[in-house]
Design goal:
Layout (H helix, E strand, L loop, with lengths): L1 H4 L3 E2 L2 E2 L3 H7 L4 E3 L3 H6 L6 E3 L4 E5 L2 E10 L2 E8 L4 E7 L6 H13 L7 H15 L3 H9 L12 E5 L3 E8 L2 E6 L6 E8 L2 E6 L9 E7 L5 E8 L10 E4 L2
Antiparallel strand pairs: 1-2, 3-4, 4-5, 5-6, 6-7, 7-8, 9-10, 9-16, 10-11, 11-12, 12-13, 13-14, 14-15, 15-16
Helix pairs in contact: 4-5
Amino acid sequence: LRLQLNQGTYKGKKFFSEAASHTMWSALQALPVSQEALAANHATHFSATGLGWFLNDYHGRKLVSHGGGHEGMNSRVVMLPEENFGMVILTNSMSSIMTPLANQTMDAFLGIQNGRDWSQYYLDIIAKARQAAPDKKEENKVKNKVKALLPLTAYTGRYNSPMYGDATITLVNKELVLQLVPAPVLGGKLKIAGPHIFDLDWKNDYPLLTPTQVRFITSADGKVAAMRLDADNPDFIFAELEFKKVN
């Protein structure tokens, strides 16, 4: 933080120039300010990325930030350069507490009176999202009535993606099982969800492994030719991987 806030200098030693610091914190790509962002903070007017940093404004000050995480941990770095203020928030959970905690701390530092109760604000958002979530029991009842268009053995075999490598589909106890060969932890049972569509039940209960569907693609003769993995996950991006059936 001190190195960044001092524009490349730490304990008298220069690691990068002020010009480089300026470039890192300059808006190089504009981002939209979503309605959700405006609802949360009416005092924001722009959103952009610099080099390795997200840039916004917060009550008239430039806000420089970035977050990151891995299995079992999340973090966020927040700086208000004009105030020579910065903080790092580290957690040992997959919680999103970093955002309300950062905002609450900035409000206290800036002396914002009658500011938003950020903890309650985000708790309300989570509660609304849970209420709006589909009823899993009803959803499963519908899926249980769906039948595969082909015998399960038609989906089994070895698949290959030139970018990723091999994946296998096997039939174990009358259930299809996917395994991504280069990563032993990535795999699980496939449960029918629609025409040539299966829900992937990951065998490892890692928080970073979000709900994923496997979609099989058939050729003109009706045989399985390829498969794709669809996951709404910024950490595991499968969208560009098409696994073609080898055998």
